Amino acid sequence: MITKSDEKSLSGLPAFSAVAGLGALTSQRSKQEEDDELLILITPYVVRSSERTEAPEIWMGK
Q1: Global pTM value
Q2: Is residue 13 a contact partner of residue 27, using CB atoms and an 8 Å limit?
Q3: 12: phi > 0 → left, psi -120 to 50 → alpha, else beta; which?
């Protein structure tokens, strides 16, 4: 499973940050990226009972 997220934010004075020239002085922009990976490994193995040594009989018919 792979997850990727990007976050952009603008903080500052609401009216002045939209004005050209003043926006750079009165606001701050930030960008944050995050990548996550999750890997699950499963190892199968056979569990045998110590009581039974032979395979069970299977009867098939019509």
Answers
A1: 0.41
A2: yes
A3: left
Q: Is the pLDDT of residue 8 over 80?
A: yes
Q: How many Å from the N-terminal Cα to the C-terminal Cα in the chain?
A: 47
- Contact of 31 with 6, CB cutoff 8 Å: yes
Query: Do 10 and 29 contact (CB within 8 A), yes or no?
Result: yes
User: Which amino acid, one-letter code, is at 24?
Assistant: A
- Written as one letter, the residue type at 15 is A
Among 36, 40, 16, 43, smallest CA distance to 27 is for 16
One-character DSSP codes across 4-23: EEEEEEEEE-TTGGGSTTHH
Q: Is 57 helix (H, G, I), strand (E, B) or coil?
A: coil
pLDDT tens-digit series, residues 40-54 = 999 988 887 666 666
